[in-house]
Every structure is written in C-alpha cells, then in structure tokens.
Backbone:
C-alpha cells in the first residue's frame, strides 16, 4: 500500500520497496547475526551520549513548546510517538515530555483498595493491612497510575473498551480537551471516529487474578495514560509519520522489534536510540524471532 502511493517519486518508490522487504526480513528473522542481533541502518541511528534522549525527543516532537489550536494538535499528535519496550521507560519519557508541553498540570488521584480474590467476601489479612500508600505506589501494566497528571491538549491512550461503537476502545488515542475530577472531555485522533468528541468517566479497574500480586487491586481512576510515549506492545495497530525507538533497554519478546519498526509509514521517519555499548555504537540491537512460530 505504501509503495503504490501515487505521490512518490521513482526514487522514493524504490526506497520504500526496499524498506518493506527489509521489514519482512526483520520480522522473519532472516537478518540475524550473533546473539540474535540485527544491524539497523546508520541513517536511523541517533548518536549515543548524555544528550541522546533530548535529541530523540526533539527528532519526534519538534516545536513541542508551541501553542496550537485543537485542530492542529490533532494533526500534530496523530502521526508521532516514541516507543519503548518497558512501561517504566514509557512513564519516564511521558513525564519528561509533559513537563515540556505548554500549560498547567492537573493531578488526578485514584482511590485504591485490596479486594477479595476468593469469593468469600474476605480479603487476605496481609493485603488488608497494607497501607494505602503502598497500594498507591503500585504501577501495573494495563492499569492507570495512582497519580495521573494531565494537561489540556496532551495526548492520551485509552486502557479499556468503554464504547466500541463510538470508537472508545482499548488503544484508542485521544487529545484531552477538558479536565474535571469526575470526567474528562477528549477528542479521538485515531480510527474511523477521528475528530469525534467523547467523555471519559472514572471507573473501577481491577488487576487480573493471575497478576504477580498476592491480592487483587481495585483502582478507581480515569482509564487513560499519557501517550507521548507508548510501549511497543501497546502501539500495535498504529500508523505513524515519525517514530522514536527508545532501545536503551533492548526488546525482550518475539516480534517486538518488527512491531516497533513497522509503525512507520516512511523509511526515513524512524529515529532509533541504542545504548552506549560497543554493539549500540555499531547499530546492533536484539531481535527475538521464534522461527517455529512462523512455520
């Protein structure tokens, strides 16, 4: 679909075709070197060092400080994101980017409790004795943070299916337009409902029974997280004009590198940041592919 774009020049068609073939080779493990590593093209790589993270941010989010209208904010954020393998790195990047984004912060706190996992109505004694501060400090994939900091105009991603017929699905990206204690007003920026205005209430979210916690956590909070940066797994299904890859911590699962690289709609719109090791300086990064899955 990208190669057939009628606006591309013959040179761009060839480069895009080569990029598509390279992506398939990455996904199918045909470019593996020693220790399951692959070589990223030099023009994708940002120089490692102390200024590397700000350089990654500026490559993806140029002019982030500028004040924009709602329509231009939608256009600006629709095609940009920084992707990282780990949620902890995503949270750090989002906090840094939110600080740089214009406007005053709104801090929204959740109400947390340990709930019964046995069906008997009783909570485990050890869990029931946990201070609220301990429950508040828990950061769990798929669950919003206890302290959710937002600004008007910032991008967010939905963590639950609220109203699929209206486009409010897990993974939908939004622009926050109004903030109150009980409801968020937002505009959808992805999918067939892009441009639609919606309202996001606070809802109770409970951890899965098979989570690593010895109890279930119920958190009453808005089911959103900031989306300047996203985890690679959460980015599946997104198409982006500018993709930043934060690979200081390498990928750890089958197909993650392929998913991250294939979010880009153009061969020259990927900015990859590797660690400062000898391999990182050479552009080598891990690519996990289980060939038996592809048979």
Residues:
């Amino acid at each position: 679909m990208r190669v057939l774009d009628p606006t591309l020049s013959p040179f761009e068609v060839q480069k895009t075709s080569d990029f598509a073939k390279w992506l398939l080779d990455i996904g199918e493990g045909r470019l593996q070197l020693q220790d399951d590593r692959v070589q990223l093209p030099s023009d994708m790589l940002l120089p490692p060092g102390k200024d590397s993270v700000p350089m990654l941010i500026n490559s993806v989010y140029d002019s982030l400080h500028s004040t924009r209208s709602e329509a231009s904010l939608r256009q600006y954020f629709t095609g940009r994101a920084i992707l990282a393998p780990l949620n902890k790195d995503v949270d750090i990047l989002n906090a840094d980017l939110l600080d740089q984004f214009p406007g005053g912060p709104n801090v929204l706190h959740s109400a947390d409790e340990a709930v019964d996992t046995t069906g008997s109505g009783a909570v485990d004694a050890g869990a029931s004795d946990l201070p609220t501060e301990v429950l508040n400090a828990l950061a769990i994939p798929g669950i919003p943070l206890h302290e959710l900091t937002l600004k008007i105009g910032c991008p967010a991603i939905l963590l639950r299916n609220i109203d699929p017929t209206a486009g409010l699905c897990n993974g939908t990206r939004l622009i926050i337009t109004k903030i109150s204690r009980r409801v968020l007003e937002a505009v959808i920026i992805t999918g067939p409902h892009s441009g639609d205005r919606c309202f996001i209430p606070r809802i109770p979210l409970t951890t899965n029974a098979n989570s690593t916690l010895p109890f279930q956590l119920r958190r009453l909070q808005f089911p959103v997280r900031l989306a300047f940066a996203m985890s690679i797994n959460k980015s599946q299904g997104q198409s982006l004009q500018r993709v930043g890859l934060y690979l200081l911590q390498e990928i750890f699962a089958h197909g993650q590198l392929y998913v991250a690289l294939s979010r880009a709609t153009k061969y020259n719109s990927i900015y990859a940041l590797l660690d400062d090791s000898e391999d990182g300086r050479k552009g080598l990064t891990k690519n996990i592919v289980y060939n038996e899955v592809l048979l």
About this structure: Residues 104-227 form one domain.
